[in-house]
Structure to design on (222 residues):
């Protein structure tokens, strides 16, 4: 059996990370959450009060910051310069800033390089927005995972509520729609389905059913 390289792209809240983590655990693959890297970079910019238009400061930060992912069965821990920021990067505040930061070419160049380095051994599942189109255009299997905005917002709402958040369903739906719009219309590496990606719409599927479907596709290719 040959372990392959899998790219999962799609809009916010489609369940990419939960599904990718589930599939990676079942098949003993390494899961790489690229969204967490953009969130970590955004967190570092906000911490240092770096203005998004200050090109020089952003460039300097790309040169100095060390972002590290430590994959685990349950959570993938995220570190910036050795500091564990796994929980900090999931707040609505970071979610509302990350797409602007992810639209900066200099940030993408830095993080794409890091992602390619992490993926080079194979046996990996990467999820994000540009994995099949830019990061790993020669991935063995590309999946475009999506669901209706309503289904995605409802899932995120339940997830956040469980963590004690009081954000309303309407606010979450609006934030997801805004992020989709920015991610799909930015000039650099916009979110789009690669020509050779398999479309999976999981509006009416559970996460387990989605994972079953993707596991079957991987097993056919191994
Ligand atoms: O996947 P997640 O929702 O955590 O990603 C956060 C944000 O990071 C996305 O809305 C997008 O702006 C950016 N992103 C990206 N390219 C990726 C992964 C995430 O631009 N490969």
């Amino acid at each position: 059996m040959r372990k392959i390289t899998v790219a999962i792209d799609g809009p916010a809240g489609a369940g990419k990370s939960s599904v990718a983590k589930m599939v990676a655990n079942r098949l003993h693959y390494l899961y790489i959450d690229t969204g967490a890297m953009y969130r970590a970079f955004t967190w570092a910019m906000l911490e240092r009060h770096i203005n998004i238009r200050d090109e020089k400061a952003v460039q300097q930060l790309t040169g100095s910051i060390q972002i590290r992912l430590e994959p685990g069965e349950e959570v993938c821990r995220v570190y910036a310069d050795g500091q564990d920021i796994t929980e900090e990067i999931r707040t609505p505040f970071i979610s509302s800033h990350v797409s602007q930061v992810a639209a900066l070419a200099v940030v993408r160049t830095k993080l794409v390089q890091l992602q390619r380095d992490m993926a080079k051994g194979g046996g990996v599942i990467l999820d994000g927005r540009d994995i099949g189109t830019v990061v790993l255009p020669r991935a063995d299997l590309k999946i475009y995972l999506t669901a209706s905005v309503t289904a995605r917002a409802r899932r995120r709402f339940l997830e956040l509520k469980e963590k004690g958040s009081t954000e309303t369903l309407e606010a979450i739906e609006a934030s997801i729609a805004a992020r989709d719009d920015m991610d799909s219309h930015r000039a650099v590496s916009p979110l789009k389905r690669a020509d050779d990606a398999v479309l999976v719409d999981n509006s009416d599927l559970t996460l387990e059913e989605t994972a079953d479907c993707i596991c079957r596709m991987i097993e056919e290719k191994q």
Observations:
- The beta strands are 5-9, 30-33, 67-70, 77-80, 83-84, 124-128, 141-146, 198-201.
- The radius of gyration is 17 Å.
- The chain has a mean pLDDT of 95.
- The domain at 5-203 is CATH 3.40.50.300 (Rossmann fold).
